[in-house]
Design brief:
Helix content is 50%, strand content 13%. A hairpin with a 2-residue loop joins strand 1 and strand 2. It starts with 21 loop residues before the first helix and ends in a 20-residue tail after the last helix. By secondary structure, it is of the alpha+beta class.
């Protein structure tokens, strides 16, 4: 009996190569064609929910940063986090970059969702059931969003969140750019224009990329396109304005003609070499950067001494037995002078720009440095103190702006 030949071999002839079944034959064998678009739809909904949560969190963080910048940073042009000082100008860039990326990502997810809805295997009724069983946070695909006056619908809430975000971003721009530049008597019109164009471009980008996709998705689900409507637009503008005022409640007064308010004459106490407590207010001396409490400098022999504490003690000695009058600029920057009993009060702001005011005295004694805003009228005093080796100029020191402290 002849030996049996192996399977597929006849008379020594090599077997015929089997056709490659391809990816579809391997990956989708036994899988319903409906599974893929349905899964893509569910994943798109989950991704949008996450993005909406990130949008809400980003808005809250932006409001917080704008409020902190307004309360503490506008006087110095920076925010202090431990040992680090972050320039305020960086914050609007970070917020707008975050917004641009999140809007781009949201549009990408909406396109993915629209592609899933366009699959022939996924019926409209089944798509509606999926949205009904697992709607995204801020359900922007519910039929109730089609009413343009539905101010509490999911789409309306998403619009209010983004409006509040951009309003807070504008408030942050004012705190980071406008107020410090006015306080420093500098023209930052070009910088402000760049920020304004960047903010407007980000808003236009978001509207152009997201609204058309939402309209097409609503049309597939409900046979009707989503309309923003004049009422929603009006409320969105009001929310933007509210976001600006929320982070800068005193901004209207800052932009008014009368930028300064008079505090005093009254007794004051020194918190450090540049900060006074006066009539229940904290006033930071405009134009100087004093050495902080606890800061150490070195004399001409190289021996350390507490220059920061000396600055505080010296400022307190200047005001311990005399009233102080300050012209205070928003939010808490002041130009202050001593007002001995019986002496005439300054008649206007120009009378305070004298060598006898508190900030000029601190610079002349070598216990503070002129900052960017005070360089014009305090620079000559600082040069004289440096030539005469007065105060910290007798030895070595680290600029106070690099030290930990608050203003």
């Amino acid at each position: 009996m002849a030996d049996e030949e192996p399977d597929g071999v006849s008379g020594g002839t090599p077997p015929e190569p089997r056709p490659d079944p391809g990816l579809r034959g391997v990956d989708y064998a036994g899988v319903s064609p409906l599974t893929i678009p349905a899964e893509a739809l569910v994943r798109s909904i989950e991704a949008l929910s996450n993005l909406f949560w990130i949008s809400i969190a980003g808005t809250v963080v932006t409001i917080f940063l704008a409020a902190v910048a307004n309360l503490d940073g506008a006087a110095t042009g920076s925010l202090e986090f431990g040992e680090y000082q972050i320039p305020l100008a960086v914050l609007p860039i970070a917020c707008l970059s975050f917004a641009m990326f999140l809007l781009w990502l949201t549009a990408a997810r909406l396109r993915m969702l629209l592609a899933a809805l366009g699959d022939d295997d996924l019926t409209t009724n089944l798509a509606r059931d999926i949205f009904r069983l697992d709607p995204p946070v801020l359900d922007v695909f519910d039929a109730g969003n089609l009413r343009w006056f539905a101010l509490l619908s999911g789409f309306s809430m998403l619009l209010w969140i983004w409006s509040l975000f951009f309003g807070s971003s504008i408030g942050l721009i004012f705190s980071a750019i406008v107020i410090p530049s006015v306080a420093a008597s500098e023209d930052e019109s070009l910088t402000l224009l760049i920020y304004a164009v960047a903010t407007l471009a980000t808003m236009v980008y978001g509207v152009a990329r997201i609204i058309p996709l939402l309209r097409r998705i609503h049309e597939k689900l409900h046979d009707e396109r989503l309309k923003v409507g004049p009422t929603r637009m009006a409320v969105a503008i009001l929310v933007v304005v509210a976001g600006v005022l929320l982070t800068n409640p005193e901004l209207p007064g800052v932009l008014a003609a009368d930028e300064y308010r008079i505090v005093g004459p009254a007794r004051a106490n020194a918190v450090d070499g540049e900060t006074l407590i006066m009539k229940g207010e904290t006033i930071v001396l405009l134009g100087i950067d004093a050495f902080r409490p606890g800061q150490t400098c070195f004399d001409r022999e190289g021996a350390p001494y507490p220059c920061g504490d000396r600055a505080t003690v010296y400022l307190q000695s200047l005001i311990s037995d005399v009233d102080v009058l300050c012209y205070v600029y928003y939010p808490n920057l002041g130009i202050c002078v001593r007002v001995p009993e019986g002496s005439p009060l300054p008649e206007d702001l120009a009378d305070l720009y004298v060598e006898q005011n508190l900030q000029a005295t601190m610079v002349a004694r070598g216990l503070a440095l002129a900052d960017k805003g005070g360089a014009v009228y305090l620079g000559p005093l600082q040069d004289r103190a440096q030539r005469n080796r007065v105060g910290v100029w007798q030895g070595a020191f680290e600029p106070p702006g690099r030290q930990t402290g608050t203003r």
